[in-house]
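Researcher: I'd like a structural prediction for the single chain below. Treat it as a standalone chain; there are no partners to consider.
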Amino acid sequence: MTGKELLLNALKGKKTSRPAWLPFVGCHGGFLIGKTATEYLQSADLLVAGLKKAKELYRPDGLPVMFDLQVEAEILGCRLHWADQVPPAVVSHPLAEGKKIADLPVLDETKGRFPIVVQALETLKKDIGSDTALYGLICGPFTLALHLLGNDIFLDMYDDEKTVLAVIDYCADVCIKSADIYLTHGADVIAVVDPMTSQISPEHFQQFVTPAMNRVYDHIRARGGLSSIFVCGDVTRNLEVMVKTTADCISVDEQIDMARLRELCAAENKSFGGNIKLTAVLLLGDEDDAKMEVLDIMAKSGTQGFILAPGCDLPYAVPAKNLQAVADMVHDEYKREAAKTLTAKKADAFDDIKLPNYKSANTVLIDVITLDSTSCAPCQYMMEAVQKAADAASPICYINEHKIKVRTGIGMMVKLGVKNLPTICINGEVKFASIIPDQKTLVAAIEAAAGK
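Model: Treating it as a single chain, here is the predicted structure.
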């Protein structure tokens, strides 16, 4: 059985001889071949080279053709900011700038970077597609709606439901077009990546997201394809509504209890995937950290409909040796048994990291704990919400983003008692954990902290 066959069997909920292995190689592919994210994500030849290198090093059962949630948004008129080590970020929102849905460009495979995607997919299908499942990753309807509308969507979900529903419905149509492009050119699986759904309630998920997503998944199934819902961020509150969608597979990040996800998916006859820690283990850890992490996940997840994967897009500079250690745990039973003798290192106490004296500060101190607001959509939009609210509030505010891609960021997360990403802390207290409040609510919290 090829790795591709094993992964597709796992995605269909079947028992497999070992976990299927799906490293989400996005801009990390550029790192593997010495190119920046900007270069890599704008070249079919570089995409192919990076993914072939990842196949050689990591022995995956599947790979994404491109991991960039801004492809559709760029075509629809959002301006992007490019960087060397992260995917581009959306920096403008056409529907918030006065445009109407009817004014937006029509998406097809000739627009934006889709010609690059198609060329890369066709080449990869020919060169490695016989034994490697190829994933087409598309931006989910809610995240795409937020790209188009901006942060006002969170208030509009209360004040202008009709408009938000219309935009999300339009975005579902865009998702279907994107899925069709991938399926037509040979993708085996379509993953609808919708990280911003981690920032809303189960009630809002069911009202605004479920109908749109189900239209996309039902279309993929009608085309003979397989689908996955993939949410980066702490989506614990929404797990039960996620498994009720018509997606074939539920993919989650490191903040999710895999034993609980396994139970929920079994009840709905769905497969599931995740959820290796991106930063503490893969980026900042070593090979032993990676091995112990994977053994723990494998023990909790079993081999019935399970796909081992990172929690989200791999950070650019993840050491290859750490991902090779993951591959060893997947493929080599002897090395797996040997790794069971490893012992965990003493936890870092972060004694050198000191919190500010919040009580004596004459400003409101806002700490935002993120993965990285330049590459993580929920983190980006949380930072934008904080800046907007700070500008509107009467007290002087000082905002500090703590990215857990570095040790000091993890230290601040620990010291502040933060359990979820992203999270807003105001004057040293956790106020909004993995949920972006509307501006009125956030301004009120800032002013309350200042005693206004």
